[in-house]
Amino acid sequence: MAQPSTRAGYQVALYLGSDVAVPVYAFVCGIDNVEINNERGVIERAIRDCATAFAAPTMKRTPGLKMSSISGSGLLATEYINDINTAFEAGTSRFWRVAVENGPTWTGKFVMSALNLTASADGSAYAEISISLQSDGPTTYTASP
């Protein structure tokens, strides 16, 4: 039996693109939980059989809009909070990338829809950050090299 090639969680990373025409991507350290969701809406329509008067209709499904979202969370790395907050406050889309080490990437423009900071005053835990991104246009999948 052949074993599948797998990746550890730390081999998936989130990158923020610079705000220029050809973005340069910087690793967002501290975000150690990354999730990308790709969805496609489906348009459903009941279609009647015109040759049979009382036959039950069948469902026709047509692919609809494609949407992507990225969420990430982890320790608050103070070196990156200004860049992340600027991306949120700008209210405009920025290029983001999710990359798997020696594997595929997902790249596109995303709007940051949530920026959350969690901290405990008792000092028993580190401050954490979480972000949510919604696609603003196509997301490009680049297969493994």
If you had to describe this structure to a student in words, what would you say it looks like?
This protein has one helix at 81-90, and strands at residues 12-17, 25-27, 31-47, 58-75, 94-100, 105-118, 128-142. By secondary structure, it is mostly beta strands. The radius of gyration is 21 Å and the shape is elongated. A 7-stranded antiparallel beta sheet has the order 2-1-5-6-7-4-3. The mean pLDDT is 90. It has 1 helix and 7 strands, in the order ββββαβββ.
Summarize the model shown.
The chain is mainly beta. The protein has 1 helix and 7 strands; from the N terminus they run E-E-E-E-H-E-E-E.
Q: Which features does this protein show?
A:
145 residues; mainly beta
What is the element layout, followed by pairings?
Layout: E1 12-17, E2 25-27, E3 31-47, E4 58-75, H1 81-90, E5 94-100, E6 105-118, E7 128-142
**Unreliable residue runs:** none
What structural category characterises the helix and strand content? mainly beta
What is the helical fraction, as a range of percent? under 10%
Could you spell the SSE succession in H and E letters?
EEEEHEEE
Radius of gyration: 21 Å
Distance between the termini: 24 Å
Shape: elongated
How big a fraction of the residues is strand?
over 45%
Number of strands: 7
Major beta sheet summary: 7 strands, antiparallel
Number of helices: 1
The largest beta-sheet arranges its strands as 2-1-5-6-7-4-3
Mean pLDDT: 90
